[in-house]
Amino acid sequence: MKIASLRRLALAAAVIPLLAGCLEKDRIASIADAENQLMTPDGRLIVSGGTGVFEIKTAASGFIAQPATSEAGRCNHTGLAQIGAWVFTACQQRPWGLLGPPDNHLLAARLVAGQPLHFVQVERASPDPMERLALPNGLAVAPNGRLLIADYNLFMLAGVARVGLDLSGARPRITSFEPNWVGSAHGIAHPNGVRVTGNELFVSDFSFVKRYQFDAAGNVPVQLPLGGGRFVKNEVLVYQGLTVLDDIQPHCGGLIITDFAGGRLIYMAPDGDDANGMPTYRLALHSGLQSLQQPSSVLVGRGPLFGGRDVLVTEKGLLNEFSSDYGNKLSRVKSEVDLNDPSGCARVNGG
Length: 351
What we know:
The chain starts with a helix and ends with a helix. The protein is mainly beta and 351 residues long. The protein is globular and about 55 Å long. Mean pLDDT is 91; it is low at 1-20. The strands form seven sheets. It has a five-stranded mixed β-sheet, with no helix packed on it. It has a four-stranded antiparallel β-sheet with strand order 1-27-26-25, with no helix packed on it. It has two helices and 27 strands.
């Protein structure tokens, strides 16, 4: 074994022993069918679940999950994203049962300091463009401010939709809707998690995660120019697994992945560029199989509620089961280094 490989193994064991096998974790709050997380720039932590959206607050006993109010009522909430002063979430109701057509919603809550969240229906055209999605799942914001929605459809080809919004009124209004904006031409068929950092787009799709690059116009071309009339495919395979993956989170220059079916966290570290200048990644850390109860999202904490040693994970548990102690919670896994500090990232990345 090369010295560099030995060094990386030693660093992994020393830096985050919890990622070398079973996890030491504590429950932050109970969240039925816990799904996704969003941390605002001022550190407010918002979590979605099968019955609604919650904000994590401090209490004498530790933390509580304060439910947000919503015009949609009880709804299965999925992704979360923030544009300006608005927090967006997608949710789905099935008034005619699992075999009937879904009723999809795009909701938004205005962030007001010290005030609880209240979600209103985003104004939509008729027919409602959200009904064109099988299951609106992960949300992200493109560099040009457009909202991206992963359409999770296991039975047909689907993609990532792009939504234009007018935020000038009392409630946001949909101005444009492009289904499958990133789709089969990009190698995407069943998107679940979607994240944007800088000019990079990451998408989880069943058992793999891919990385794309936005161009100067805010689009995701199928190919990128290299100069001299040459092009390279705008698609980097970050990770390929054997089980169903869920959410993804760019951090420390790499990507944290929730392996939903495998019940574990995976960290893919940056590993330099290839001959065409495209980034490459290597498996750096992972927790043991079934060390988490079907993790659906992951986030590294920030102040004032948390810090860079707090890895926050939603554990969903069994799908559509809202009451047992298996899953249905937001958990905290402790890191031995500050993952918001460049020196901590360097150690995790094997530097």
